[in-house]
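Consortium newsletter contribution from the modelling node. Members have asked for a concrete example of what our holo predictions look like. Here is one, prepared for the FNR complex that several groups have been discussing at recent meetings.
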Amino acid sequence: TQHKVGYFVGSLAKESINRKLAQALVKLAPPQLEMTEISFADLPLYTYDYDSDFPPVATAYKDALAVVDAVLFVTPEYNRSIPGGLKNAIDWASRPYGKNSFTRKPSAVIGTSPGAIGTAVAQQHLRSILSFCNSPQMNAPEAYIQFKPDLISDDSEVTVESTREFLRGFMHDFHVFITRVRSVLPQE
Ligand code: FNR
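And here is the predicted structure:
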């Protein structure tokens, strides 16, 4: 089955290593997954004061989420959690009350860091948030990618074969997971 996947890059940095990972994942995804980035850089800081009158940038963001069948989070770990910009984007997506964009939307999380534990703590925080947002999450495989300078080439190829095949398997399993969830939990 064909599925649209919206991916979030948790970092806003120009040279983000998580963006490099996301671009590599796009290349490794099975052909059944149509990958598009969900951009959140232009969202203002969320407050519920906006709930009665969402600004156009937030409406466009919610619309982009509405048309995807699943979401993939590719995020760094900042101070043992997710970056503030990504949390802000999730808060926007969850509101207004009753219009949570993540309800029943399958998700997966992955991230890379130069550190040895490869964003593990940030991913645990993100999983707690996504649980509250009622997103069915792919539990396994987990993916904690330790970034090395030459891991991903300028044309988004993963240079280490074992890592490349692991990531290809991750995207394959995500496709299987999305198909399964969507068959039992149709969207409203
Ligand atoms: C970091 N970094 C980091 N790394 C990590 O493994 N655990 C952590 O808790 C943190 N904390 C942290 C806080 C802040 C504010 C910054 C800027 C950085 C290092 C981080 O992994 C590294 O900068 C990566 O390059 C971040 O990924 P992006 O933004 O390049 O995708």
